[in-house]
Amino acid sequence: MPLDLVANVFISGLLTGLVYGLMALGLSVIFGVVRVVNFAHGEMMTIAMYATVMLFAALGLDPLLLVIPIAAAFFAFGYVLQAGLINPFITRPEHSQFLLLVAVAIIMVNTLLMMFGPDSRNVQVDYQLESFAIGPILFDTVRATVRQRVRMIPTDDIRIERSMLSDRAGTLGGIALAMKHGLAAD
After folding, report:
1. Neighbouring C-beta atoms of residue 94, cutoff 10 Å
2. How far from 40 is each of 100, 123, 130, CA to CA, in Å?
3. Is 122 inside a domain boundary?
4. 79: domain range?
5. For 53-87, what is each residue's pLDDT tens digit?
């Protein structure tokens, strides 16, 4: 196999892995702060993606311009979910939290299936196939922007000690869940 083909496949895989890493960052933030494993994390990302697709279809807005408003909306959604649904279960046994969030995930999945059906949706934009070359290696322009997003997240500056939490269900937990859903919406 040609070396430039191997390098292109490697770079494409690395950029895709960065997208997955950005999704996992939100999940690890909420688990690290509140100690709740949110099994509905992927479903919430899917809802954010469907919201982007629907806004693109209805209003013709660019998906990259929708990142900030969708992230803000899911920040609010995450805070409301934490304050209204998850907080009462924080002091209960862990299996209660597990069952609650699995139930939320199942409800979300089935609601999406009822609303959108089992078919996948996509967005067609002019720049989706654009790439740039550095020597013989091609970089996908859209995926390469993820690298800048990951570098903008100040993970070394955000250190939340567990001793700072008077209770795991406090305001800090709500903000952490809201941040997670904001990151997931990207």
Report:
1. 11
2. 10, 24, 33
3. no
4. 3-117+130-185
5. 999 999 988 888 888 899 899 989 988 988 899 88
What pTM was estimated for this model as a whole?
Answer: 0.64
Name the token pair of 122. Answer: 């996509």
Pair 183, 22: CB distance under 8 Å: yes
Q: How far is CA 36 from CA 39, 119, 172, in A?
A: 9, 31, 13
Domain count of the fold of the chain:
1
Helices (H), 37-140: 41-59, 67-81, 94-116
> 177, 81 in Cβ contact below 8 A?
yes
Residue 108: CA count within 13 A, CB half-sphere: 19
CA-only gyration radius of the chain, Å: 19
- Residue whose structure tokens are 């311009």: 65
Rounded mean pLDDT, 88-102: 87
